[in-house]
Amino acid sequence: MKDKIVIIAEKRQEKIHSVTLECIEAANKISSNGEIIVLLFGDDDDEPIIDELMYYHADRIVFMKNSKFARNNVETLLPHIQQFIEAEQPFVVLLGQTDIGKTLAACLSENLDFPLISNIVEAEQANDNLTVSRQIFSGNIINKVLINNSCILSVKQKAWRPSHKLDDKKGRKEVHHPVVKEPGFSLVRLEKKSNGKEELSNAHVIAAAGRGVENERGYNLVKQLAETLGGKVGVSRGAVELGVCDATNQIGQTGETVAPKIYIACGISGAIQHLVGITSADMIIAINKDVEAPIFQAADYGIVGDVFDVLPLLEKELGYTPNSQ
């Protein structure tokens, strides 16, 4: 398949958003010999990001420079993206399933009359036919869609491995200077709440609490395990409903999707709404006193036991004592 693919890049905290690297990986799965174009809006401060993108598996890195007002603002981004797509005539437009990605994808689909397929988790090409897969009905069903015409695809975050960085530059840089009008409203600043919110999306180790932690003491045992392992703490909806924590770090269909190297589910039953958020974990370890808990069907390793008994023993084995820190 020799058609073009355009990726709408995103930033997060002045760095390449990981979902952009996942889009590059998806693009290479969609077309092994087509032209992959990454489009990024920004200003002088974003030059290092453009230079870094040249070391990934993309052919052209198009920098819409001096477009400060366009940052994360659909009102100003949309016409320039639409104009670029109309000029390039790609077979596929790829975006991340992020807040701004979902908004842009829907608007582009309407304006360009391109079908939109969201939340894709896999792509296969055979005999010049492209088939993409997405999860529907809370992950219970994999929906496969055959692509015949130009379309817009949004990739599910953490369902794809990020494209790996090359030793040498591959992509060639193009710089454009669009005339970007000041929008009717704009983002002034982002403020991070001091509420203890953990950044789960890039965590290598996550210990997560479920309804089985029962109370604040049980939740603190899970938090301590996460700290001992140098990881982050997550929660299921069941733990939130107990009232021992808020939904800030909730994982699952209505929370974060994560892809850690190790995921330790503590007292989590394994409802499908939770499992859809952890399917990309390299290893799942389940601790639950119910031997019939569905989480064991998804786990690589399982421990049948009460978290109040198992976690202190695990901490002891790891060498942690309350006075050691």
Tell me what the CATH architecture of the largest domain is: 3-Layer(aba) Sandwich
Indicate the structural class.
alpha/beta
- Level-1 CATH class name of the largest domain: Alpha Beta
By CATH's scheme, which homologous superfamily of the largest domain applies?
A: HUPs
Quickly count the helices.
9
Shape label: elongated
Q: N- to C-terminal separation?
A: 57 Å
Poorly predicted runs of 5 or more residues = 194-198
Q: What do we call the CATH topology of the largest domain?
A: Rossmann fold
Q: How many strands, which pairing sense, and closed or not: the largest β-sheet?
A: 9 strands, mixed
Radius of gyration: 22 Å
- Strands ordered across the widest β-sheet: 9-8-7-10-6-1-4-5-11
Amount of helix = 25-40%
Number of strands: 16
- The helix/strand order is EEEHEHEHEHEEEEEEHEHEHEHEH
